[in-house]
Amino acid sequence: MRVMWKGAVSFGLVTIPIHLYAATESKNVSLRQVHEADGGRIQYKRVCTVDGEEVPYADIAKGYELSDGGMVVLTDKELSELPVSTSRSIDVQEFVPLESIDPIYYDKSYYLEPQKAAIKPYVLLRDALHKSGQVAITKVAIRQRESLAVLRVVSDVMVLTTMLWPDEVRDIDFPFLREDPPEVRAQEMSMASSLIDSLSDSVFEPDKYQDSYREALLGLIQSKIDGKEAERPPAAAAEAEITDLMSALQASVTAAKEARETGSDGDAGDSGGHGSGGSAPSGSGSGDEDASGEEDAESSGAASGMDKDRSGGSGRSSRTSA
């Protein structure tokens, strides 16, 4: 992993210098836009809509568009000089139970590594945080954006997860919520509970799941590399239409129990691989982009024909302290 940010955790009068690393990485398969007839890459040029001239990347600034179409131009220098008190620090604001935070607020996660002279205070805060059973609410600025963040302990390492601001979470307003709810019979509730029970497990094991679409996409790419005809996955069996809710619940419970019995033979535990072998790309995209250059890389990439579609995903297993 590569250090993407250097700063310090500010905890009362204690300052803990740290290195920040991206905790996740994308396993998406990168697909470029090309001319179907000959495979040539599609390129885009940065053209000014006023004079029609191509603009060098060094001459590009950011702009805030007004409602009348006017533009307020903001230079990188002006943006870098904005006063942000948390620009190089992770300021602890308060401590709360982890379960009091709705996951809808979570954004991106980062590992915190102590700098050499700060191992003792790092371990002290880590262990105190673990013992308290709580997490720290902090403020931090990364990539010229100030965020709330949760500081918690995962596998003996402190992890920082940035959060959305309250006004970035949309209000829930659906018409059915303003209507009288339909009556749910006791038998239907009992059957729904049985379905939940039949699909329940004591812990979440992400390794038993796999990205079938990404594996199929990599298989298709490998087939084309090898000059073979791509194998089509078997079509899913058509499900009988069930219009009665109780019948649908009963059929679901039966299917779940059968799946559990089949999985107990070991099939469910063998699904963590990435699928295709050979030389096909396993995906691209790393979480280790430098904080100061990620946006520039994205902009220049799009301008030079690097416009990509994404598919696939990945998960990471971790143990939390709360």
What does this 3D model show about the protein?
The structure is a single chain. The chain has 322 residues and is of the alpha+beta class. It has six helices and eleven strands. A seven-stranded mixed barrel has the order 1-2-7-10-9-8-6. Strands 3-11 form a two-stranded antiparallel sheet. Helix 3 runs parallel beside helix 5. The longest helix has 23 residues, at 245-267. The model is unreliable at 267-280 and 282-322 (pLDDT under 50).
Overall radius of gyration: 25 Å
How would you describe the shape?
Answer: extended
Assign a percent range to the helix content: 10-25%
Low-confidence stretches at least 5 residues in length (pLDDT < 50)? 267-280, 282-322
- Compute the number of strand runs: 11
- DSSP helical segment count: 6
| Overall average residue pLDDT | 81
Structural class of the secondary elements?
A: alpha+beta
User: H/E order of the elements?
Assistant: EEEEEHEEHEEEHHHHE
Cα separation of the termini: 26 Å
Question: Main β-sheet, in a few words?
Answer: 7 strands, mixed, barrel
Oligomer: single chain
Strand order of the largest sheet: 1-2-7-10-9-8-6
The fraction of residues in strands falls at 15-25%
